[in-house]
Design the sequence.
């Protein structure tokens, strides 16, 4: 989500390309998967990225 | 770790390894800078005048207040501490402790030591007592000396955790009485305004004003605590410049 510099909408979708988005998506899927498995420390593992 | 490895791989693939290496700190351990601790400056009153200075302080206080109350209720709900009315039991003065922290944060010249929504991460992992806060505090104390290392972790690595925390906090929305419009509409306004304005304060302010307005229009204004009216008046006062700006 981004704040567009112009336009009527207060928020909008950012560009889905580039390394930061790839890192975010991998981290999000990893964290969500660990949460769904009810793994203890899933959030920390998701940040540190060592399952 | 994933973020750092990917950064290195992508940077190497682009042939800009030297630029990527600059992201790693030169030293891992660094003494914290405490030079601003206790350096109080009351020049604000001389520069802005007493009335404006008090209004500025009040606006910061209001922001802190709404942030703290919103976070306490949200985290309390996630931890299962709320009663049937969705309120925290009054046996412990949590809000007073939060405000005391903000006061001492100002003394340290740091950003306000208010209650942060990131606390929900600890509650999600099972924290239920003050021991968790003590452990967190000790870890932060140690982290002060490893700030260069912490700066390596990019925002995109921590963003997924915050989204998951937001997901868990959303769960308490099921307790909103959606058939009772007097309660549900202000709650909806709160949830709507927060993301659209990127501010917890704005969202809670909108909820306060909507709640009071609906109560007044239904002739039930006497049910509200007088502090609600004071908070609403402050919210409206600080929203006036925005409304006037939008009207131009």
Sequence:
């Amino acid at each position: 989500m981004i704040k567009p510099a112009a336009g009527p909408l207060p928020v909008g979708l950012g560009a889905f390309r580039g390394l930061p988005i790839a890192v975010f998506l991998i981290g999000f899927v990893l964290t969500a998967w660990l949460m769904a498995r009810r793994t203890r420390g899933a959030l920390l593992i998701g940040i540190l990225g060592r399952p | 770790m994933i973020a750092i490895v990917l950064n290195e791989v992508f940077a190497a693939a682009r042939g800009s390894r030297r630029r990527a290496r600059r992201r790693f700190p030169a030293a891992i351990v660094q003494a914290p800078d405490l030079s601003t601790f206790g350096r109080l400056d009351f020049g604000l009153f001389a520069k802005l005048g007493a009335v404006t200075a008090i209004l500025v302080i009040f606006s910061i206080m209001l922001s802190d207040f709404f942030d703290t109350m919103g976070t306490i209720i949200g985290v309390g709900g996630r931890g299962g501490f709320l009663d049937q009315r969705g309120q925290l039991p009054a046996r412990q003065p949590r809000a007073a402790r939060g405000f005391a922290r903000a006061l001492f944060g100002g003394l340290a010249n740091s950003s306000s030591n208010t209650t942060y929504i990131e606390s929900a991460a600890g509650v999600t992992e099972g924290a239920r007592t003050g021991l968790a806060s003590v452990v967190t505090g000790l870890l932060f104390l140690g982290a002060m000396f490893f700030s260069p290392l912490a700066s390596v972790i990019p925002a995109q690595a921590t963003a997924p955790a915050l989204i998951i925390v937001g997901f868990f906090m959303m769960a308490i929305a099921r307790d909103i009485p959606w058939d009772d419009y007097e309660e549900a509409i202000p709650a909806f306004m709160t949830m709507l305004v927060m993301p659209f304005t990127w501010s917890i304060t704005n969202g809670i302010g909108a909820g306060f004003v909507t709640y009071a307005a609906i109560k007044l229009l239904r002739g039930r204004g006497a049910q509200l605590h007088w502090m609600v009216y004071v908070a609403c008046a402050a919210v409206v006062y600080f929203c006036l410049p925005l409304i006037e700006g939008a009207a131009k």
